[in-house]
# Entry
Amino acid sequence: MPGASSDICKRGIEVNRPQIKVLQSVFFDKIKQRQKVNNLNWGGKMRHVKFFTAAALIAIFLSSAVFAATAQQYYDFGMKLYNARNYTKAVSYFKNAAKADKNNPEYFRMIGNCYEKMGQPSKAKPFFDFANNLAKTRGVLEWKKIRVSPYAGFTTVGMATVNDFLFGGTMPDTAEIQKFGAGFTAGVEAGYSFLQGLYTGLKLGIVLPANAKYTDENSSPLLSYKTENQYSASIIPVMLGGSYEFKISNTPVSAGAGVYAGWGFASGSFILKSEQTITFMGSSTTTSSGSDAAFSGGCFTADISAFGEYKISDMISAGLNLGYRIANVSEMKYTKVPDGSGYETGDTVEYWKSGWTEPKPMPFDFGGFIITARASFYF
# Structure
């Protein structure tokens, strides 16, 4: 019966084959469904990963865009810390500036300055050497081509002859006087550098001495009087020249000297006022009088000066200027004559002394010492 049993097996297999196919289809459907679920879960996870990765990259990009600083910004903030004597923090900013711009010797020099201030000269020396070599090999000039330097401060003036003429005589005890004297000066230098450190160009300024004044007031039961005289003068020097500036090694300090010469445009004026009151038998009579005049002139002017500046940033320095000015106007001419004086427009302003047979032109000496604050802007 072996053949019968094999037939039965064959028939059983044939009979069960549709059921097996059903079972296979159910089994594989479940596997596919599970794979789909897994794929969905994995796909979701991947989408989350991709999303967070993209978000992180965007955040990094935005943060770098927002918080990234330029070499100059690092340097400027480092200078603030350096000026505040916080050398430990300042050096890190100078290092960041040097990383951002490896071609600027000033950044490396300031790193050396910080280490030197922290008492670590051995660490400072390599940075000083590197900065010096970088400046030499690359020909980097720390001075820009254009420099504009406004200034303002104190000045003295001569005016000895004018003061002597106005106030040299005997004065009443009640009189109050103020002579021409120290005053205010301001101006600007603008230069172009053809050679390292040497700037040539224009210097324009103004000199305003303190006004001279004479006041006198007295009164009595019968007579009272009041006199007020005011005198003013000024000069505007327009000069050409130049200055040389050099940097003091391993410091943010520079020093220099300048010489300028040109022409000064001078002017002046005076106003005289008087008032007199006579009282008689209870009745008072007041009379007033006055006159004014204006004059102008010119002269050769020159000044020589020395200055020192502290570097605030790559484009700005500030400091002090000491100098001396030559500006003696030998004569002035009236542009407006005082009433009843007999002078005419264009006549020379004159003065006289006892024993002279004729008057002489009045000199106005605007020369004197100069002490000013200054700032320099480099472009």
Notes: The domain at 146-378 is CATH 2.40.160 (Porin). The chain has a mean pLDDT of 84. The radius of gyration is 45 Å.
